[in-house]
Amino acid sequence: MDLSVIIPVYNEVNHIREILARVQATKLAKEIIVVDDASTDGTRETLAKLNGKRKVRVLLHEQNKGKGAAVVTGMNAAQGDILLIQDADLEYDPRDYPTLLKPIHEGRADVVYGSRFLGGTHRVTMFWHQVANQLLTLMTNILYDTILTDMETGYKVFRREVIEGLQIRSQRFNFEPEFTAKILKRKYRIYEAPISFNPRDYSEGKKIGLRDAFEAVWALLRYRVMD
Q: Average per-residue pLDDT in the chain?
């Protein structure tokens, strides 16, 4: 089964070459779709030099819309049988791809979440950010009767069939709870796999904030009762 890796990007000029090199080093991706969400720091100029090389395909947003919108653009363009979302900020390690893909390749799962809380190696930092993640995951489990450990993970891998007919409205980081709510309601087989995690803090360019936590809560409540 062919793998499409989708990389939403916004102002990651210092990391974009490195993350692409790491994805390419796995030799697993049939295509690497980079969606630039109107970067202003030189990321676009760097991507222009990489477009069309070593399986990289660059798509551009002319206005900044948010991570969710960039992911949806990538999903709509992807041609693979399996789609994998990869953040560009080097927090997630593409060397975990084999672990993430295994349940799908073995026919046991339709969706795999890479969990930061299942014992993988991780940098020790950002306590309150972890607490917020765990509270949102707990809320997900209560509302949707499941046992996820990491709803907000950036590593989500899924078969193409999962998104056929799936409408995603969220344009920002609330993509994560909306996507999760909708696949849980559709009863897809979801597995979790341990991943390594190297979180950056706000001084290093982390973008998600308190507003996004409130939007995630609203998304979980909203999509519990609507499609």
A: 92
Q: For the chain, how are helix, strand and coil distributed in percent, rounded to 5?
A: 40, 20, 40
E strands, the chain, in order = 3-9, 31-37, 56-61, 82-85, 111-115, 156-159, 190-194
Structural domain span for residue 56: 3-225
Per-residue pLDDT at 28 exceeds 80: yes
Token pair 């000029």 in the structure block, residue: 13
Each residue of 59-101: pLDDT tens digit? 999 999 999 999 999 999 999 999 999 999 999 999 999 999 9
Report the CATH number that the domain containing residue 72 is assigned in CATH: 3.90.550.10
pLDDT at position 35 over 70: yes
Query: Would you say how long the chain is, in residues?
Result: 227
Across the beta sheet with 82-85, what order do the strands follow? 56-61, 31-37, 3-9, 82-85, 156-159, 111-115, 190-194
8 Å CB contact between 177 and 222: no
Token output for 61? 């947003």
Closest CA to 217 of 132, 106, 92: 132
**pTM across the whole model:** 0.90
Other C-beta atoms closer than 10 Å to the C-beta of 72 total 24
Both tokens of residue 150?
A: 């990491």
Q: What mean pLDDT do residues 10-24 have?
A: 97
What's the pLDDT band for 104 if we cut at 50, 70, 90?
Answer: very high
8 Å CB contact between 223 and 181 = yes
Select from 173, 161, 166, 174 the least CA-distant residue to 227. 166
